[in-house]
Amino acid sequence: MSVVPALILYYFPRACSLAVHIALEESGLDYERRIVHLPSKQNHSPAYLATNPNGAVPALSIGQQTLTETHAILTYVGDQVPEGKLLPLPGDLLRYRAHEWMNFLSSSVHTYVRSIFRSTVYAGEDNATCLAVNAQGVKNLAKATAIIERRLGDQTWALGDAFSVADAYLFVMYLWTTDERVSSVPERSRWDALAKRVWQRPAVQRVVAIERQDRNYEIPWE
Ligand SMILES: N[C@@H](CCC(=O)N[C@@H](CS)C(=O)NCC(=O)O)C(=O)O
After folding, report:
1. Which helix (H) or strand (E) holds 212?
2. What is the pLDDT of residue 3?
3. Which pLDDT does position 165 carry in this prediction?
4. DSSP 95-127
5. Averaged over 194-210, what is the pLDDT?
6. How large is the average pLDDT for residues 113-120?
7. Is residue 157 helix, strand or coil?
8. Which protein residue's CA is at the shortest distance from atom 15 of ligand 1?
9. What is the Cα–Cα distance from 40 to 53, expressed in whole angstroms?
10. Nearest CA to ligand 1 atom 18
C-alpha cells in the first residue's frame, strides 16, 4: 500500500477551498489545515507565495510539493481513497463524468460568480464596465444553472448513486449562488436538493463548524 505524504491544506472559509476541505474530511486521511486570510491579503505575503506562487487558495502541500487548482486537488484526494469511493477509478466512465463536472465548475461557474463578486478582476476600475461585467455574470450564471439542473436530472448525486468529490464542489458553488451579491438566480430545485444532501453529511458539518470559527457564513437550510 502506498504511503500518503504529510498533507497541509491552505484555505479560507467558504472560498472554493471549502470543496477540498470537505473532500479531505470525507477521505479520512490525516491532514493539517492552515487558514490564509484573504481579506488582509495574506495570500500575497512572501511566506504564502513561497508555498503557492499563484497567491490563491486552495493549495495542498503534499510532502515537499504543493498542488494547486481545486479540480486537480480534488482528483488527488479522491485517488487516495480506496475503491474509488470519492472518485471512480480509471476506466470507469463515471470518473470522466466527475472531471466533466469539476472542469465545468472551475472554468465556468466559478468564473461567472467571480465576475459578480469581484467584477474589477475582469473590468478594472471603471464603474460602468464593472456593472456591465456584473450583469453579464448574472446572465452567465443563469445559463450555467440550467445546465446543472439538466445534468443532475433525477440523480441523487452528481455521478448518480454515490457521493463523490464533484458533489463537494457543487455544494460550494451552490452556497455562492445564495450570496446577497448575486442579484438573481433561477429556480434550481435539483441543485438545491443536492446541496442540502451534502450539508447533511457529518463530515461536511464538521468542516463548516471549523471554518465558521474564523468567518461566519450562512447555510440556507439551518
Ligand atoms: N483556478 C483556481 C482559482 C482559485 C481562486 O480563485 N481562489 C480564490 C478563492 S475562491 C482566491 O484565492 N482568491 C484570492 C485572490 O485572487 O486574491 C481554482 O480553481 O482553485
Report:
1. helix 202-212
2. 74
3. 98
4. HHHHHHHHHHIIIIIHHHHHHHHTTHHHHTT-H
5. 98
6. 97
7. strand
8. 56
9. 17
10. 69
Domains along the chain?
7-82 (3.40.30.10), 93-201 (1.20.1050.10)
Beta strands in the chain (DSSP E): 7-11, 32-35, 59-62, 65-68
Nearby residues of 161 by Cβ (< 8 Å), 6 or more positions away: 155
How many angstroms is it from 82 CA to the middle of ligand 1? 29
**Residue 124 reports pLDDT greater than 80:** yes
Please, which residues have CB within 8 angstroms of residue 139's CB and are 6 or more apart in sequence? none
Cell 477551498 appears where? 17
pLDDT (0 to 100) of residue 29: 97
Backbone torsions φ then ψ of 160, nearest 5 degrees = 120, -110
User: Is the CB of 75 within 6 Å of ligand 1?
Assistant: no
pLDDT at 42: 98
Name the grid cell of 124: 478594472
